[in-house]
Amino acid sequence: MKMTYDVVIIGAGLAGYSAALAAIKNNKKVLVTAKGLGNFYSASGYIDFLGYYPANSRKPLQNPKNSLKELIGNNPKHPYSLIGEKAIEAAFSIFLQTSKEMGLPYTGTMDENVLMPSAAGALIPTSLYPVTADKRVTETHELFVVGIKEMADFYPAYAAHNLKKQLKASIKHTWVALELGIGRELNSYDIALAMEKAEIRQRLVDQLKKAAVKGSLLAIPAVLGVKASQETIKNIEEELECRVLEFPTLPPSVMGYRLAENLKNYLELQGVDFIVGHPVSHVQYDGRICKEIGITTGSGRIKKIKANSFVLATGGVLSEGLFVYPGKIKETVFGLPVGMVQEAVPENFFNMDEFSISYAGVMTNEKLQPVKPGTQEVLYENIYIAGATLAGYDPFIEKSGNGVALASGYKAGLMAVTGRDTDE
Asked: Sign of dihedral through CA atoms 245, 229, 241, 199?
């Protein structure tokens, strides 16, 4: 018996979840299917709307919303231009509201970028972030960078050194040892699980009391709990009489994990079905209409799934939604043509202004339907594209990856169920 849905979303990253959110709020039957976990688990958990514009600018934008109008005016093929201001604002608003409902509240605004420290001590512009991270490192006078000896790949002295170059604050650093008794270095997820135990957390608190952190802003890798992070942070702040700011770590990212798990749980409670771990191996069309897809299960059988509409949110080159072959790039589910592929020649290979593989992707119209490159000819009427599969932007240089994912996913989900780009 074939499974039947109103909307099938292919891809389990932020774009796919945002599309599911838009569809489920219109009372549609939704399935999210994906070959693997999305990029949440290696991402910061922040929603970067637009960090730099022009993309090659080295100065972070203070008000990204003001620059959005200029971007849309100058770059008609950029995803934000296709999505439109109204849908972008709606997507950000619904995400903030949903984050409260799912128990991991976010804050921030499209009108302001806040600089957040990275694990290397760089300051990264972002627009939306967890409420627990609402502490301005740029406005603090005393910053204490804390490293955990059992944790791999973080060095507080290095991060503090780099932060000193950018901030006017007094910056100190220290190590703490959690004495977990495990004879190997641990990653951030291991530490976060341990930190939810009161006796482990107390070891951290006792050592930091000796370091005299009272009254300072404590910058620590995002390891303060997995499911109980808000309570853990509050407890440490009360014990030490200071403020605590977690910053994203190298993968696995606990902040990304918290966002992924909370969003997925929320969507499941709203009735969204998930099938993760199986690639799409079958597609059936009737002219310019996609009728069904099929996924290959562990037994080798193909499970066929019918839907009225499909949202493709499988990501770009890094997520293998786009696959790079010698001399060409292919979209891996529907075999859609990939546009904006520039030829690399020795003269421009290292010039990111002239050559960037990130600009490659599926070209769409303003409804986010795939079109033939160089034309407005719609290839499939009930397929909508979202996230890094879209052509026309570099999410890494302009710091817009999660912003485009959130907004395009929302618009694709709405277009798939209502044919409109807002929920009014």
From this structure: negative
Cα separation values, 169 from 140, 172, 222, Å: 6, 10, 22
44 CB-near residues (< 8 Å, 6+ apart): 116, 124, 126, 248, 253, 255, 256
pLDDT digits over 171-185, tens only?
999 999 998 888 787
Residue among 368, 379, 346 at smallest CA distance from 412: 368
Q: What is the distance between the alpha carbons of residues 71 and 54, in angstroms, rounded to a whole number?
A: 8
Contacts of 308 (CB under 8 A, 6+ apart): 5, 6, 7, 382, 416
Give Rg (Cα) of the chain.
Answer: 22
Q: What is the pLDDT of residues 318-370, one digit of tens each?
A: 888 999 888 788 999 999 999 876 655 555 555 655 556 788 999 999 999 99
**Biggest CA-to-CA distance, the chain:** 71
Lowest mean pLDDT among 25-34, 142-151, 322-331, 352-361: 352-361
Tell me which residue has tokens 């009930």. Answer: 382
Q: Determine what percent of the chain is predicted with pLDDT higher than 70.
A: 95
Alpha carbon of 180 to those of 135, 183, 232, 325: distances in Å?
Answer: 30, 9, 18, 46
Contact 368, 411 (CB under 8 A): yes
The answer for residues whose C-beta is within 8 angstroms of residue 185's C-beta and 6 or more apart is: 150, 151, 152
Contact 20, 272 (CB under 8 A): yes
pLDDT in tens, 239-262: 999 999 999 998 889 999 999 999
Which backbone phi and psi does 244 adopt, to 5 degrees? -120, 130
Q: Rounded distance, CA 125 to CA 397, Å?
A: 12
